[in-house]
Amino acid sequence: MNRTRPLVLGIETSCDETGVGIVRGTTLLANTIASSMEEHARYGGVVPEVAARAHLEALGPAIGTALGEAGVTLGEIDAIAVTNGPGLAGALMVGVGAAKALALSLEVPIYAVNHLVGHVGADLLDDEAPLETPTVALLVSGGHTSLLLVRDLVSDVELLGETIDDAAGEAFDKVARVLGLPYPGGPEIDRAAIGGDPAAIRFPRGLTHPKDLAAHRYDFSFSGLKTAVARWVEQREAAGEPVPLADVAASFREAVVDVLVGKAVAACADLGVPRLLLGGGVVANSRLREVARSRADAAGIALRVPPLSLCTDNGAMIAALGAQLVMAGHAPSELGFGADSTLPVTEIQA
Amino acid sequence: MLLAIDTSTGTSVAVVDREGGILAEVGTDDSMRHAEVVGGFIRDALAEAGVTPSRLSGVAAGMGPGPFTGLRVGIAAAHAFALGIGRPFVPVVSHDAVAWSWYHDGGTGGLQVVTDARRREFAVSEYDGLDADDLPVRLTGPELAPRDEVPAARGIRFDAHLVPAGAIGMLAELAFAAGRLPLAGDAPLYLRAPDVTPSARKRVLR
Ligand SMILES: [Zn+2]
User: Fold this and answer.
1) Record-annotated residues binding substrate (chain A) (predicted)?
2) Looking at the partner chain, which of A45, A49, A53 has a beta carbon nearest the beta carbon of B199?
3) What are the chain A neighbours of B72 within 8 Å (beta carbons)?
């Protein structure tokens, strides 16, 4: 096997995106994503069984598309990488079963990797300015909201904090529903907030009070915020007053972004780590990128935001992390690994 | 020579050959650990049969019925293996393999194959022997029935806890030889719409 610039095919099926990516070392060759998002829209959130069924249908064609895009054949692949958690168990198992069989059929090693660490690995695919460690990473999506300290991508990742209830992306979906906006809520709220005043309504910032900070310095909570928005809107309605949609959307979004960026920047300062990496689908939110940029600049923190196609769940980031493990000389995963829906971030490789 | 995989109940993996029959078969009736064991079983079945992937001419898979999460693991694995060796994927109805094994072991007359479908239901198929091509004659099913309302069997009722992949593979070999492929569709036999609990809609506040 080529250990200096291994050709790795990565498979990601932890949520509603079927991702197949191909990298050579740190060079991105293909990033194919098939999403079942539309099938979930009418349920207002990801339905695990619907997602798992869609993965099974999409995976084979996605592998074919990725190979075509990369201009390589399966026979050239040096190793397979696959997400084994965290995520939806039934969805993960489709990828795990397929990846094991693919590796065996090609007689190549398999690397089972952590989805969250994969999000950080996405940033390796920038050939011009390689990822530097240590870095703090803020990973925000519909499935997770986590703050990590990455000292070494393949051997030392620590969970600083995570959401204790809803993921940030979930909060966007739920508040969108309160406001009568369709799923997924992130882009809808972004659009509705145009022209709105982010300071119009002071919605609560979860786990930011001094009493909460003692136990939850880097944790997040968004369920109270969602309730506060619903209550505010209902009171307006009950009083027969119009609901200023743009102001509500902008103020809600500001509360989410304020907490996310505030805690991430605080972690950088506390730990003396002048680097912050963003990842996850919520990075698509324009205000999150804007606020992160300005506060990072003000604090002298180097902010890194991979291209959006590498921020949402994808197979390229899994391949990139797999390639790092190969290049670092790590042994492949034993074939007996399973899907672990609550895989801790410290378990980078199974 | 075929690799065959079934995860509709436990996990079973086999290597079969039309002339040589079932060359290797490994499995467990553990109905919870499909993703964990499927890789090791593929490796072990190939090793036991002394076969490398490139010598296989296809991959047969049990398409169910079976509990969804586990069922998908075997189908996904079979698909991916077929892709890896660039050979056909051959879908087979899992109950047919149970029936084929039963008749091959000397059973005669009517057979009702019953497997667990969770949620207090069984999946049920009725058979009436093997035809001229040695393929089982399925009269009804597979279909779901509440556990205490399974129709009376025409002959013997057989509750299967492990669908033998060797039989999945042999059915694929026999159907190919008889020019009777495909034996099943490409879609898993879920027999049940996905369980969705649409979240309670808030009234629209605009
Ligand atoms: Zn993710």
Assistant:
1) 139-143, 173, 186, 190, 285
2) A45
3) 52-53, 55-56, 90, 93-94, 97
Whole-number Å distance between alpha carbons of B185 and B204: 43
Domains in chain A with CATH codes: 7-126+310-328 (3.30.420.40), 135-305 (3.30.420.40)
A286's CB contacts (< 8 A; 6+ apart) are A190
- Give A116 Cα–ligand 1 centroid separation in angstroms: 6
Q: Which of A105, A110, A336 sits opposite B85 (nearest CB)?
A: A105
Provide DSSP, A149-194: EEEETTTEEEEEEEBSSS-HHHHHHHHHHHTTPPSSHHHHHHHHTT
Ligand 1: distance of its center to the CA of A242 in Å?
37
pLDDT one-digit tens code per residue, B51-100: 999 999 999 999 999 999 999 999 999 999 999 999 999 999 999 999 99
Strand partners, A30: A22
Half-sphere exposure at residue A131, Cβ-oriented, CA atoms within 13 angstroms: 28
Q: Is B200's Cβ below 8 Å from some Cβ in A?
A: no
CB neighbour list of residue A188: distance below 8 Å, 6 or more residues apart: A176, A181, A182
CB contact under 8 A, A74 and B83: yes
Set of chain B residues whose Cβ sits within 8 Å of the Cβ of A68: none
Token output for A332: 């492949």
A105 annotated among ligand-binding-site residues: no
> What was the ipTM of the complex prediction?
0.95
Identity of the residue in B53, B76, B194 whose CB atom sits nearest the CB atom of A105: B53
Q: Is A36 one of the annotated binding-site residues?
A: no
Residue A123 assigned as binding residue: no
Domains of chain B: 2-177 (3.30.420.40)
Pairing verdict, β A145-152 and B2-6: unpaired
Q: Which of A53, A74, A234 sits opposite B205 (nearest CB)?
A: A234
Tens digit of pLDDT per residue, chain A (350 long)?
A: 889 999 999 999 999 999 999 999 999 999 999 998 888 888 888 999 999 999 999 999 999 999 999 999 999 999 999 999 999 999 999 999 999 999 999 999 999 999 999 999 999 997 678 889 999 999 999 889 999 999 999 999 999 999 999 999 999 999 999 999 999 999 999 999 999 999 999 999 999 999 999 899 999 999 999 999 999 999 999 999 999 999 999 999 999 999 999 999 999 999 999 999 999 999 999 999 999 999 999 999 999 999 999 999 999 999 999 999 999 999 999 999 999 999 999 999 99
Tokens 């490409």 found at: B186
Kindly list the residues from chain B whose CB atom is less than 8 angstroms away from the CB atom of residue A49. Answer: 68, 194-196
Contacts B46 to A, Cβ<8 Å: 104
C-beta separation of A200 from A212 below 8 A: no
Residues of B in contact with A96 (CB under 8 A): 35, 73
Residue B87 near residue B4, CB atoms below 8 Å? no
User: Which residues, in sequence order, are CB contacts of B197 under 8 Å at separation 6+?
Assistant: none
pTM of the shown model: 0.95
